[in-house]
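Thread: "does anyone have the structure for this chain?"

Original post by V.I.:
We have the sequence but no experimental structure in hand. Need at least a predicted one for the grant figures.
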Amino acid sequence: MGKKASPKARPVLLLSVALAVVLLALSVGLGVGLSVRTRDRAGQQVEEKLVILDVDPGIDDAIAMLMVLSQPAVRVLAVTCVRGNARDVQQGCRNALRVLRVAGRMDISLYVGASLQLMGHDVFDHTYWSGVDGMGDVPDVNAPDYSLINQSEHAALTLIRMSKAYPNQITLIALGPLTNVALARRMDLDISSRFKEIIIMGGNIRGVGNMDIAAEFNFWMDPEAAQVVLREYKCPMKVVPWEVCQEHGLEWDFFSSWLTADTPKVRFIRDITNNLTQRLQQDGMLTYMCCDPLATAVAMDNSLAQTVSNVYATVETKGEFTRAQMVVDWGRLSQKRPNIDVMQNLDMARYKELLTEAVH
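Reply from O.Q.:
Generated one for you, tokens below.
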């Protein structure tokens, strides 16, 4: 039978227990992080959402960034840029910095990422929908200090570092080509399971393309990177594909009313979308397809997608006509474990609420 602790030993024992509890709490905090409570727009206490935005700004990216930055319960840890809508990644970074300035969030660090695809093929031979500069070709009369763009750490290394600092806590929102995300996996195999989730705008589910016969822009830009991410990341992944974006365009009446307020954010969006909306309306388009904000809306509100399909998908990299197509195993014929959730039938009323919050 064990001996009882003497009265003199009890304070020491209690102190040791208290110290052990403190050390345990610190180890938990350093290892997996402690959830932080904050308040949403309604003043309700909610768990703070940690986010990294991997973007290729881009008009749609700009609107999507404003949506995320408008949410008080979201903490954006970093913005990482990849070549995409802008002809070079440095221009994309300048565009992202403009958005941070408009949002009043110049405190957020911005990192330069991949300037070429994984295989190094230059696919650009045209003028973009978003303008030559990626931001509607609107002069930046109050250009921010571009020295604020972080040149000392590549964006892929930022993803690795942040995922280690906040394991299983970060929602990575990938709105451009997936080159940075794939590079991070190539440099650190363990990163594949360190994100809480990855939200991807890209790919397609019925072979409908917008850059090639069967290729959506972000996957078309770097099919090998998209294949790496879909095949090798182990964390939950949600995909908002091109066809779903087509089905959830914004009616012109809403688009006009959305941008009637006289705020810096509204004026900014009106300016950068002006040339594009005129062209779309002249071409007889019935709606404005705003793809990247759909993906960020899914990240902001898990209930936005009213239909979610858990499927296995990969990316074709060698097809003569189907290079960059996201191939979905709807019939589970491959017998491979599902690796993505396809977001479908989105709640447009809630989506429009989030867009409205983004500009006020």
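V.I.: this helps a lot. Confidence is low (pLDDT under 50) at residues 11-33.
O.Q.: and The chain has one domain: 37-358.
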